[in-house]
Amino acid sequence: MLLRKSLLFFILLILSPVLLLALPQDLEVFTDFENISGEGEFFIGEEPNRVKLVGFTVETLEDPALLHSGTKALTLGPGQEGVIVSDRGLDEIQFYAAESTGGGRIEYRGNYTLADYTVGIILADNGVVNGLPTNISSGAGLQGGIADSGFFRDNSDFDFIDGIREIKIKNITGKLSIDDLGFTLTSRPSNNTAYTRFETSDGFSTGQGQFEPLVIGVSPYTASFDGGIIMAGASENPTHSGELSYGIAVNGDSFEVTFETPAYEIDTYAGALLLSSASESDGSIEVYDTNDNLIATFTDFTASGGLRFEFKPPFITINADELGAPAGISRLIIKDNPKLNVARSRTVIDTFGFTPIGAPGTGTTATTCLLYTS
Asked: Among 256, 253, 234, 252, which residue's Cα sits nearest to residue 243?
């Protein structure tokens, strides 16, 4: 009987929208605004796990209906608009919102990828709230949502696989307040000390990296890509987002990623145009520790259609602790399978992020074997 009940609950969970949301104080970063002051533009959290607030004022309020706790809240006056911005994307955000006349509007935005390019920041299909409660003191007015629950049939999330990027909040006539705000950063590749999508907005251009290494990050936390090429968005090019990716254009070739400071974690989407069979991948990632020992090989690349043709492609996580390399990962070699005899092989990585050992906020400790430059 217990097994049948558990199975029924699991089936209902899959077939039903995911409606259970965390409370603000249960998320990674939380503030009740009691120890914050400012207006115009300021930040909550610490790099890399922080959000920027633009257009708001942190204000001490006398009306208890506009407060969920304490005496201070974010506010907007008549006709004002504020924006909560996350460059790296949020998995989830929750907050209480009220407006003294029952008005106000909230809009949730994120990146959306079509079959051949990224549309940029767009409004979620279910991402608009019109009208807010006039009293949040008793717990009413909980707002927010989940970027992507991972369930195809879930209509309650926003379907932003790279996280919520913007929340626009508009006031009309009365006083609008936001109190007790919590958020959790995305677990995707962008949640790292350094990351790139290999797009022109990252300072790159088509063809860069073909003749000299391409470098991302700021010293001593850099990664150098050598031997590959930034590839334009041809119809067969398997990118995760945008029109560019970094990869191998010649069958059987390879490229190398070297870390100035050994990496604690690396996250990336990896794709290959062709697969010879279900058991033989067109691409692989070899992982080396600081003693240049090969400690792991990843071959679970996205299959023949490429990254751009998957609605929610999986990403690869390479973690030094999990691989038994406490001093970190020194380099990667991304290889194309020479057994697949095709004139042009499209093995690529895209939306690449890494966190070095000893980087601020990582909780890891630098050791004497770190590779610093003077």
From this structure: 234
